[in-house]
Structures are given as C-alpha cells and as structure tokens.
Task: inverse folding
C-alpha cells in the first residue's frame, strides 16, 4: 500500500467525469439497499396488506354502491391505479425515517464525510424507495389480476407504469427525506408523516375523480403531485384507460418536482447531523 | 493559501457559534504531517464541533481551516477526498457483511472496479478481518466493528484520518489492538491522525501531541511529556485535572452525554 500525496488525484478529470461520478455514487447507494431488501423482503409483504384491504374491502363495497362516477370503466377498475399510487405514496412518505436512523447510527456522518455529492446520496435513497415501490406494484398487479381487472399488458405500457412508480416513489421519498432533515427527530417525523399522508391521499383523484370535488378541493388536487401519478397510472395500467392531463404533462410535472426536491434536500442533508 | 507544506491541518481563528453559545472559540491549530494528534477535554469543550468543521459537516461561523492543503470553505470536496473519518458511533451497517460495507465505500471513493476487491482484501488483512469478511456485521464484536470502520476509512489511502473517540466502549484487549493498528498506519504510511478521546491512557500512549480544550478554547498544547512536566503530574489524568480545573457542570449537555453513552452501549 502506498500513501497518496495530500493533494489527491487531479481534480480536472474528476470534474470532467462529474456526471458519471454522480451516477456511480447514486448506484452505490441503490446497490446497498437492494442487498438489504433481498435479504429481508418482509417489509414488502407486510406493506401490501393495506392496499389489499383497500382494493378488496373498499373497492368491492363502493363498486357495488355505484356512488362514484367512474366514466366508461367500472369503479373497481377506476380504483386499481389509485390504490397503486396510494401504496407508492405510503411506502415512500415514511422513508425519510431511515435517514434519521442512519444519523443516529453514525452511518450518515460517514457518508457525508465522503466525497460523494450530497445530491447523489439523496437520489440514491430516492431510487431505493422506487425499487421497494416496484416490488409493491408487482403485488398489486397480482391482486388486480386476481380480481379480473382488465390490465394493459403492452410492453410500452408496462415500462411506463414501472417508470411512473419509480418516479413517484423517488419524489415522495425525497419529500420525506426533506422533512426528516428539517424535523431531525423520529417522534416529530412520525407525527408529521401521519398528518401529511391522508390529506395527500384524499385531496387527489386516487379514489374519486376531480370532477366531483368541491372547487376548493379541486385546486388542492391540481397542485398535489399524487394526482399526476394517479393520472398517468390510470392511463397506462388498465386497458382502455385515459389521462386527464396528458401522459407527457404528468411525467414532466413529476420529474420537475423530483429535481427540485432533490436539490433542496441535498442542501439540507448535512443539517441533520448537527 | 495552505500554510507550511509539512502541516496536515491548519486552523485559523476557527469559530462556531450555536444560537449565541460559542462552541469553538478562535481555534488556532497546526498539526504536522505524520503525527497522531489528540484533542482532549471535557464533554462540551468543543472537540466534536471542531471535528465536524474540519470534516466539512458543519460550516464555521468565522475563521477557516485547511486539511491536506484544501480549504474547508472553498474546497470541501477536496478535503473529503483527502481524509478518512471514523465516527464516535457504531457506523458500520449491521445489515451488511464486512465486505459489503467496504464495497459501498470503495465505490463512493472512486476506487476503480478492477482494484476494488484487491483494496478491500488489503485493508481487511491489515485490520485482521479477512476471515470474517463474509459474516454479517451484526455478528461482529465491538472491537471488530471498530477495526472494520478504520479499514473503511483508510481504503482510499487518505493522508489524514479523523477518529472521534476510537476506542469508546471497547475492552482493554480490543483497545490495544486498535492502538497497534493506528500506530502501524502512522509508521507504515505516514498517515496523520487526529483523534478525540476521553481516555487519558490512550492519549498518553498514542498521541505525539495533545491539545486540551476547555470551554471552547485550547487550554494547553504539547506532547504528553511536556504537559505532564508543566502540570507537575505523573499521569495524563493529573494533567487533565490540572488544566481543566474543577469540572464545570454547565459545559456538559444532555446531547453530549446521550451520544457518548449510546456509542459506548452500542460497542458493548
């Protein structure tokens, strides 16, 4: 082993390779999360109980009531993408607590003391949440198949759904990381997480269309990113599904919100160890 | 500017305030390359805050510092590339194996793919952990975890290592093994080591120079022998008591105690 000179490697090539360094570090974080998930997938199973209940109990009952106008498709088919989006939200919105754990364990300090760009640490976490959400999505696909929902099996649609799930989970988990950086303690974080989840869910088009909402709620639903995730999933997941805002617009909005959140959270990240 | 070439760390009026409370007050330190430097002092004296600033986790309120010639203010990434850091807490990931823990950092520190395995084996062998590298870290002893953390921090061959209470919570045998490894690092690779400790025995045996911090300032600085002479004491405990005087209860806060106790408990 040889000792390196204090001035380290030339900065020029590292700067030139800035993007690849960013990707490498992001993927290094994702790889670790994948190993952990593979070793202990129990969370995926326990987390799928709640969406299963929504689909089986709520979906069945409300489908029979015919109280919600779901357009040309039956209510259960209308609901399925909404519940998929909901489970993406639920699995991601508490993801930030992992960073509080890692701070308490000292793992985060070590990562912050490394040259990895802070935005790569944040995006790595966000994409890891995306992978968890994908596993969840698989279970919801199985459930809906079992419930005879007509799913869109075209490869393009499936890839679109997978990308939307990852994008949505990355966005909500970054939001969650941002809150963790601000509140810093587990207790406060859990409190705020609980407060946020239900309003985000109910002020969206997940279980009823925006058209039947009162005007004030319509406004909130339109600035709620969950609405756009539901919209794109509704267009791509079920056969004969359609988008209200356009798939391109949905993707653009989700992507834009993700980028802004990653940049803000990367700035806040070191604050959590103070 | 980066000061004399043989200085690994230089601080210039380094100051940090928290809501009006001064945690580190105009610190001026010069640490020579290839030495082990101990930062001592009661809880709340400013040791951890100093390390956080030098490792770019916390920005100073005033003043500046240079680590391996890189400014903590204008070139934090340069600083982070030139250093290794071992946190006071148990920072190895128990849900991964020893090897996987090191692989994460081999990637993040930009060690080329073709060299990663070799480097990981090299540091594992150096730290005496090669046989247990495929075991989950949750099954490691406190001493093994500490050695793994040091292995991780030296994998990219940094010229400077920061160690926050490296032997807190370890039994005497594990403690001595960590000391031996740190000495080897210094003599074999010329690594500069900055450590904080509450263990006066550790400071005496391991450190070439010691700065005793008290109430955010440096009370005294020198080699263990010089300090003992100055204090007229025959042990570092005596030096500590001489220079820190009566231990003020107001300097230690709940947070410091919580951190130290948690670290000690986790290592047990």
Result:
């Amino acid at each position: 082993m040889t000792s390196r000179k204090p001035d380290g490697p030339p900065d020029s090539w590292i700067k030139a390779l800035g993007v690849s360094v960013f990707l490498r570090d992001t993927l290094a974080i994702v790889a670790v999360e994948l190993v952990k998930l593979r070793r202990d997938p129990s969370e995926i199973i326990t987390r799928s109980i709640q969406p299963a209940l929504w689909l089986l109990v709520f979906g069945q009952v409300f489908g029979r009531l015919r109280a919600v106008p779901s357009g040309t498709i039956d209510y259960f088919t209308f609901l399925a993408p909404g519940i998929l989006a909901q489970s993406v939200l639920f699995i991601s919105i508490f993801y930030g607590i992992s960073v509080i754990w890692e701070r308490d364990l000292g793992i985060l300090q070590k990562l912050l003391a490394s040259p990895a760009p802070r935005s790569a640490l944040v995006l790595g976490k966000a994409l890891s949440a995306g992978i968890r959400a994908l596993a969840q999505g698989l279970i919801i696909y199985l459930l809906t198949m079992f419930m005879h929902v007509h799913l869109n099996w075209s490869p393009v649609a499936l890839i679109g759904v997978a990308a939307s799930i990852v994008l949505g989970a990355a966005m909500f988990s970054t939001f969650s990381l941002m809150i963790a950086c601000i509140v810093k303690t587990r207790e406060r974080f859990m409190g705020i997480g609980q407060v946020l989840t239900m309003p985000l869910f109910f002020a969206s088009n997940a279980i009823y269309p925006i058209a039947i909402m009162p005007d004030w709620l319509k406004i909130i639903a339109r600035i709620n990113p969950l609405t756009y995730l539901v919209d794109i999933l509704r267009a791509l997941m079920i056969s004969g599904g359609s988008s209200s805002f356009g798939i391109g617009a949905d993707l653009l909005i989700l992507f834009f919100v993700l980028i802004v959140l990653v940049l803000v959270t990367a700035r806040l990240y070191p604050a959590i160890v103070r | 500017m980066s000061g004399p070439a043989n200085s690994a760390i230089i601080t210039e009026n380094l100051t940090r305030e928290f809501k009006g409370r001064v945690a580190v007050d105009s610190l001026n330190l010069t640490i020579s390359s290839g030495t082990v430097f101990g930062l001592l002092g009661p809880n709340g004296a400013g040791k951890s805050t100093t390390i956080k600033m030098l490792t770019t986790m916390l920005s100073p309120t005033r003043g500046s510092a240079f680590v391996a010639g890189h400014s903590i203010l204008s070139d934090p990434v340069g600083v982070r590339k030139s250093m290794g850091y071992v946190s006071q807490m148990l920072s190895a990931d128990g849900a991964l194996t020893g090897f996987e823990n090191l692989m994460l950092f081999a990637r993040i520190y930009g060690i080329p793919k073709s060299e990663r395995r070799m480097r990981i084996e090299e540091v594992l062998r150096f730290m005496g952990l090669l046989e247990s590298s495929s075991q989950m870290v949750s099954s490691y002893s406190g001493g093994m975890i500490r050695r793994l953390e040091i292995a991780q921090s030296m994998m990219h061959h940094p010229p400077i290592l920061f160690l926050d209470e490296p032997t807190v919570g370890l039994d005497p045998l594990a403690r001595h093994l960590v000391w031996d490894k740190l000495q080897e690092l210094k003599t074999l690779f010329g690594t500069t080591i900055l450590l904080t400790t509450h263990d006066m025995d550790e400071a005496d045996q391991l450190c070439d120079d010691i700065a005793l911090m008290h109430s955010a300032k440096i009370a005294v600085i020198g080699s263990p022998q010089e300090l003992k002479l100055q204090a007229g004491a025959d042990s570092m405990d005596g030096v500590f008591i001489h220079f820190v005087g009566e231990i003020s209860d107001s300097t230690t806060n709940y947070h410091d105690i919580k951190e130290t106790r948690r670290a000690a408990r986790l290592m047990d």
Observations:
- The longest helix of chain A spans residues 118-146.
- Chain A is about 75% helix and 0% strand.
- Chain A touches chain B at residues 1-9, 11, 14, 21, 24-25, 27-29, 31-32, 35-36, 39-40, 104-107, 109-116, 270, 273-274 (CB under 8 Å).
